[in-house]
Amino acid sequence: MKINQFAVVDTPFETQLKELATIGFYDEPVQVAHAKNATAVWRELLRIAFPEVQDGRVKFRDIAINTREDLAGYLNSGAPVTEQVFNAVALQLLGFVEDVDYTFDKVAEAVATINLPLYHKAGRWDADDVLTAWYQLLVTHTRNGLQFIDDLASRGYFMKNNVPLFFNGKAMATFDTSALIREVVYVETDVDTDGDGVRDLVRAEVIRPDTGVKVPTLFTASPYYQGLNNEANDALVHNVDVALLRKTPNTLTYEEIKYEPEQEALPEAHEIAGEVTETTESFTGTSHVDLNNYFLARGFAVVYSAGIGTRHSDGMQDTGSPEQVASMQAVVEWLAGDRLAFIDKHSGQTIKANWSNGKVAMTGKSYLGTLATAVATTGVRGLETVISEAAISDWYQYYRDNGLVIAPGGFPGEDMDVLAELVYSRMLDSADWHLTKMQWHGFQHSTAEHMDRATGDYNTYWDARNYLNSVPNIQADIVMVHGLNDWNVKPRQVFRLWQNLQQLPVVKKLYLHQGQHIYINNNRSLDFADQMNLWLSYKLYGVQNQAASQLPDVTWQANDQAETWETVHEWGTTTPTTLPLAAETATVQYEDWQIADDFATYKQDFNAWRQQMLQRENDKLDVNRVVFVQPAFEQDVVIDGEVTLQLRIKSSADVGLVSTMLVDYGEARRLATTPQPQGVLIDRGTGWQPTPLVEFQLAKPTTEKMISIGHINLQNRTAPWRVDDLVPDEFGDVALTLQPTRYRLPAGHQLGVIVYGTDFEMTVRGNQDIRYTIDVEQSQLIVPLQDNTQK
């Protein structure tokens, strides 16, 4: 087992004493013992380290010093405190298991292997050493995923006085989550998406601690939050078993399709009848974000809003639109004191967020993180930071790619209108649905027309939903989290945002993990929740904890080792290396056609199809692919950024698409992309919203691993908005940039690239009889390769 902690702040001794006093570990008995000796100090600290009992001394006989002596006997003997005995006890307090995680004759080795940030000093310790070691122990992670001080909190150490308390720069769980205030407000926006002439109201649900202290807010914008229309969504999924169509060539430039927002007069405001200080509506629990739950126990409010076109709100649902973003921006403005909200949709009674300190962070994964990113690009006041996980920065890159209609991994046939249908939760209230049904159908018809599945080209509709265009407006500091094996929201989404942010004077932090479309806040080997605690205590409470410099710029989970997280300063800045493609002949061919039975099989199980495509030894799909393999590397190398495949290629038809996969060939145990539950629930406070502790584990050996993927329509060789001509059997040049990655390729492994046509999971599946020919000598692979020593 290995634990990686990056949120432990180096703290001077005098500050340690003050903080220990603040949390009750440097009370009068400890201070008296401090004047005596190290053993007396240690005894007093241990006595109050078992909050589940009145006097912790009853637990001393349950703890061993070595194979012969328990803690009670050792303390009574007056023997000195040393690193060996302190850490032997520390391992047990932290929940590690003898003969599994450590042995008494190798305590130091176990501490080093597990990577615990415990105090190190040879020889006999004095009282100051014990206090410093205790401070370090409190911020060290237990076997079960919490800092020791948070583990103590979960066992009832802190009195719930509803007052913020910070230790080692991080907020402690001192708030009573059994008495949270839940209230509903309706925020007035500046948009009128249902065309009734009045500004749309959006429902926001507030969960906050019952305290007289003004608190900051974690706001999650989630169109899913008010319910889903699964049946309607499924009925609208598009058929992808359609032919790739020829498009009429054009010479469009970006300027011709660029989105320019129209300056329109504000819709009519709602009438105000007065102002009140209490809401009249509450709500019961619903599905909440785990990271938000963690902070509710630590003195942060949490707000959820589904935005326009959702249950209990006004308006039409329009995936990723400027209007949708504006509706979420309005909630931030209300929290910052810059916008009106009402206690209901009819009385005209307004209410202020008088409990808010005006500072907001936006959180969430996928669509939730997407809207957090989008709101940040408005530059709205009050938004101090965003923690966006697996977020979209450009909707075109989610449902399209290089002139192709592309599905997010696992969801063939989904599109902007399908997602809108899923979350138009006004359907769930019968009266509201009957009032809006005809308008909604008309709105969806317009969406289908503008998103243009027929061509897959980038147009003004998509440009309006490309948040990268507005990155220069960002004022908030940004934390980004993304999976390098996320083929739903693919890695390019965070890579492009990361690149664009480099030009801005904001703090940006990036976490790259080996998972799919997941959260990582409950991962055992990384202290992500602690890091976000450090970050939000700084950003929202103003705690001077050096968070901006303490947290690494880029944290990368190694793909070839378990429980290993490395830190680097950049991503994607490595100078690329050009590698030739090798084949036995000057040209190679493949065809994009399957017999009916195979076509039907691969449609039903695209995972099986992809696995067959990846396996070099499996020749069943040889006619449908070309595999280029580089010589084995003599040393470990790291692929850092975007790989580009430059092809000279021709199609036998006047249409064509190219798909490609970058592959690691070589037998190895590789990390599973879904973390496994560890059989433990970790507490988010004290008896509050427990969540499973998980960890990425090494799977059984395999001979190949897909590293990255890419797709392009051969008629969009120049740009996604421009259509080039494609003459049958005429060679042309195409540069296909694959999804970015950071991947360590071990010595002895080979880098492969597979070129093919239809992607049964992601592209349209026309089963067209098309043959492709590649001029091998005029084609090459451009790879940003680092040697393994570069950081």
Automatic annotation (TrEMBL):
<dbReference type="InterPro" id="IPR015251">
    <property type="entry name" value="PepX_N_dom"/>
</dbReference>
<dbReference type="InterPro" id="IPR013736">
    <property type="entry name" value="Xaa-Pro_dipept_C"/>
</dbReference>
<comment type="similarity">
    <text>Belongs to the peptidase S15 family.</text>
</comment>
<dbReference type="InterPro" id="IPR005674">
    <property type="entry name" value="CocE/Ser_esterase"/>
</dbReference>
<protein>
    <recommendedName>
        <fullName>Xaa-Pro dipeptidyl-peptidase</fullName>
        <ecNumber>3.4.14.11</ecNumber>
    </recommendedName>
</protein>
<dbReference type="InterPro" id="IPR036313">
    <property type="entry name" value="PepX_N_dom_sf"/>
</dbReference>
<feature type="active site" description="Charge relay system">
    <location>
        <position position="517"/>
    </location>
</feature>
<dbReference type="InterPro" id="IPR000383">
    <property type="entry name" value="Xaa-Pro-like_dom"/>
</dbReference>
<dbReference type="GO" id="GO:0005737">
    <property type="term" value="C:cytoplasm"/>
</dbReference>
<feature type="active site" description="Charge relay system">
    <location>
        <position position="366"/>
    </location>
</feature>
<dbReference type="Pfam" id="PF09168">
    <property type="entry name" value="PepX_N"/>
</dbReference>
<dbReference type="InterPro" id="IPR029058">
    <property type="entry name" value="AB_hydrolase_fold"/>
</dbReference>
<keyword id="KW-0378">Hydrolase</keyword>
<dbReference type="InterPro" id="IPR008252">
    <property type="entry name" value="Pept_S15_Xpro"/>
</dbReference>
<dbReference type="GO" id="GO:0004177">
    <property type="term" value="F:aminopeptidase activity"/>
</dbReference>
<dbReference type="GO" id="GO:0006508">
    <property type="term" value="P:proteolysis"/>
</dbReference>
<dbReference type="InterPro" id="IPR008979">
    <property type="entry name" value="Galactose-bd-like_sf"/>
</dbReference>
<dbReference type="GO" id="GO:0008236">
    <property type="term" value="F:serine-type peptidase activity"/>
</dbReference>
<dbReference type="Pfam" id="PF02129">
    <property type="entry name" value="Peptidase_S15"/>
</dbReference>
<keyword id="KW-0720">Serine protease</keyword>
<keyword id="KW-0031">Aminopeptidase</keyword>
<feature type="domain" description="X-Prolyl dipeptidyl aminopeptidase PepX N-terminal">
    <location>
        <begin position="1"/>
        <end position="157"/>
    </location>
</feature>
<comment type="subunit">
    <text>Homodimer.</text>
</comment>
<keyword id="KW-0645">Protease</keyword>
<feature type="active site" description="Charge relay system">
    <location>
        <position position="486"/>
    </location>
</feature>
<comment type="function">
    <text>Removes N-terminal dipeptides sequentially from polypeptides having unsubstituted N-termini provided that the penultimate residue is proline.</text>
</comment>
<feature type="domain" description="Xaa-Pro dipeptidyl-peptidase C-terminal">
    <location>
        <begin position="533"/>
        <end position="782"/>
    </location>
</feature>
<dbReference type="GO" id="GO:0008239">
    <property type="term" value="F:dipeptidyl-peptidase activity"/>
</dbReference>
<keyword id="KW-0963">Cytoplasm</keyword>
<dbReference type="Pfam" id="PF08530">
    <property type="entry name" value="PepX_C"/>
</dbReference>
